[in-house]
């Protein structure tokens, strides 16, 4: 089922999400719905807070972001109760966007490598290191479960330039490409 994506301004996007256990209600259905919602919106990642759940869960399919012919280097993974253990390498800048903040992009500096411990959908624990674009997508989605939006990491001038657009998104005054839930008012 396609879920509405919570837009900028929704309080759930600014909360630190809570860990979950295998008995979380309807978890398999939620994960399935998140995959379907992300794909419908042409995203490469989606965190549970973006669908109104303040839990430590996100899904990533970074294969479309890989160079042509190297799609298999992308990741297609469920991350539950993730914890970043280390970020390493030089910071590099890349124009990021977000399904909760449509039509706004901006350069964000992030380390080129991240080591993360997480559980998969079977609650098996993994520790993996990701590099480049995979690391960036993991870091972006991880920020969501920490209550951080990419717009907070923009340079001051860019923050000022997008302020009016952010307010329009908060109020729902935008053209929609997928189902969203707004603050309104």
TrEMBL record:
Substrates-to-products reaction catalysed: N-terminal N-formyl-L-methionyl-[peptide] + H2O = N-terminal L-methionyl-[peptide] + formate
Database matches in Gene3D superfamilies: Peptide deformylase
KW Nuclease (keyword) present: no
Family matches, as InterPro entries: Peptide_deformylase (IPR023635), Peptide_deformylase_sf (IPR036821)
GO biological process, one term: translation
Keyword Hydrolase: yes
Cofactor note: Binds 1 Fe(2+) ion.
Binding locations of Fe cation: 98, 140, 144
CDD domains reported in the protein's UniProt record: Pep_deformylase
Family membership: Belongs to the polypeptide deformylase family.
UniProt-recorded name of the protein: Peptide deformylase
Species this chain originates from: Neolewinella aquimaris
Lineage summary: Bacteria, Pseudomonadati, Bacteroidota, Saprospiria, Saprospirales
């Amino acid at each position: 089922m396609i879920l509405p994506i919570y837009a900028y301004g929704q309080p759930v996007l600014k909360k630190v999400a809570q860990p979950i256990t295998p008995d979380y209600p309807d978890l398999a259905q939620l994960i399935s719905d998140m995959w379907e919602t992300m794909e419908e919106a042409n995203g490469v990642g989606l965190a549970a807070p973006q669908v109104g759940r303040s839990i430590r869960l996100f899904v990533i399919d970074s294969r479309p972001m890989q160079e042509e012919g190297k799609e298999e280097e992308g990741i297609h993974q469920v991350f539950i109760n993730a914890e970043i253990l280390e970020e390493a390498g030089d910071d590099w800048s890349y124009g990021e966007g977000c399904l909760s903040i449509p039509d706004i992009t901006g350069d964000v500096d992030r380390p080129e490598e991240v080591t993360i411990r997480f559980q998969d959908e079977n609650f098996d624990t993994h520790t993996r290191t990701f590099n480049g674009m995979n690391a960036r997508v993991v870091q972006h989605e991880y920020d969501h479960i920490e209550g951080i939006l990419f717009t907070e990491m923009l340079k001051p001038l860019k923050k000022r330039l997008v302020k009016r657009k952010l307010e329009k998104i908060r109020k729902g005054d935008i053209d929609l490409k997928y189902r969203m839930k707004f603050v309104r008012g």
